[in-house]
């Protein structure tokens, strides 16, 4: 277990929304996590914020655990898992939020496991002309990319500025990459077509430095199984970056 993966203590807390298993220290939280939203006060929502039904003794009001808005039972009846807020059990959500949470479930059930299992790449640091064969994986606490080979790197997810997924199928040019300048910046997203991922370029900040460091990952061509595994890992990384990009406004 690397230094970035020392077991983070967790605690069970009860909020108005339900039971949550959260890190004892906020600094140890997953970058994929979301904060619980403040609930719209009851006195400010005399009607359902979806269908405009008036609340009364019969028609009770319910708060969506993901957005905090107030709805009638008909518009907020689904109980859906919400791992991004660390809820132990499925929680009540409005139809719109439930759909988003259900889509995110695939990331937690599939892509996150792929990222944590890791894949093998040739890694080139900066402008060097030498590459090193390394295993890259997401740490168990989801906060770092861990690279192991003759060298060892731990890149904190929140320090990554740019993720570019290199794809196969286009001639070199603007369409040769999926770009998410996602975690520290607010730049435009461009996304290519349905092509196979063959590599990745990261730009990130090293603690104590304001300059960006670049690292390039290239899938190994030696074994077809490694090539397929690397492509799956890159596709999962693409999903993770998109999730983090979209989370900035949540």
From TrEMBL:
<keyword id="KW-0862">Zinc</keyword>
<dbReference type="InterPro" id="IPR013083">
    <property type="entry name" value="Znf_RING/FYVE/PHD"/>
</dbReference>
<feature type="domain" description="FYVE-type">
    <location>
        <begin position="42"/>
        <end position="97"/>
    </location>
</feature>
<dbReference type="InterPro" id="IPR052113">
    <property type="entry name" value="FYVE-type_Zinc_Finger"/>
</dbReference>
<protein>
    <submittedName>
        <fullName>Zinc finger FYVE domain-containing protein 21 isoform A</fullName>
    </submittedName>
</protein>
<dbReference type="InterPro" id="IPR011011">
    <property type="entry name" value="Znf_FYVE_PHD"/>
</dbReference>
<dbReference type="InterPro" id="IPR017455">
    <property type="entry name" value="Znf_FYVE-rel"/>
</dbReference>
<dbReference type="InterPro" id="IPR038632">
    <property type="entry name" value="ZFYVE21_C_sf"/>
</dbReference>
<dbReference type="GO" id="GO:0008270">
    <property type="term" value="F:zinc ion binding"/>
</dbReference>
<dbReference type="InterPro" id="IPR000306">
    <property type="entry name" value="Znf_FYVE"/>
</dbReference>
<keyword id="KW-0479">Metal-binding</keyword>
<dbReference type="Pfam" id="PF01363">
    <property type="entry name" value="FYVE"/>
</dbReference>
<keyword id="KW-0863">Zinc-finger</keyword>
<dbReference type="InterPro" id="IPR032031">
    <property type="entry name" value="ZFYVE21_C"/>
</dbReference>
<dbReference type="Pfam" id="PF16696">
    <property type="entry name" value="ZFYVE21_C"/>
</dbReference>
């Amino acid at each position: 277990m690397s230094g970035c993966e020392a077991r983070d203590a967790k605690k069970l807390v009860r909020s108005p929304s339900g039971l949550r298993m959260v890190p004892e220290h906020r600094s140890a939280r997953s970058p994929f996590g979301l904060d619980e939203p403040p609930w719209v006060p009851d006195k400010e929502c005399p009607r359902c914020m979806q269908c405009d039904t008036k609340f009364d003794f019969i028609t009770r009001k319910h708060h969506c655990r993901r957005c905090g808005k107030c709805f009638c039972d008909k518009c907020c009846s689904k109980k859906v898992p919400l791992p991004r807020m660390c809820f132990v059990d499925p929680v009540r959500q409005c139809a719109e939020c439930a759909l988003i949470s259900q889509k995110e479930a695939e990331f937690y059930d599939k892509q996150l496991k792929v990222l944590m299992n890791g894949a093998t790449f040739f890694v080139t640091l900066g402008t060097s002309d030498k590459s090193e064969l390394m295993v890259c994986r997401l740490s168990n606490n989801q906060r770092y990319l861990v690279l192991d080979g003759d060298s060892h790197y731990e890149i904190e997810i929140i320090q990554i500025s740019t993720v570019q997924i290199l794809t196969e199928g286009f001639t070199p040019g603007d369409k040769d990459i999926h770009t998410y300048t996602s975690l520290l910046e607010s730049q435009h997203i461009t996304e290519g077509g349905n092509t196979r991922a063959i590599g990745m370029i990261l730009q990130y900040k090293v603690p104590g430095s304001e300059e960006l460091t670049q690292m390039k990952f290239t899938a190994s061509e030696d074994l077809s199984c490694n090539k397929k595994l690397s492509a799956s890992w890159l596709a999962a990384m693409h999903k993770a970056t998109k999730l983090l990009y979209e989370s900035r406004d949540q």
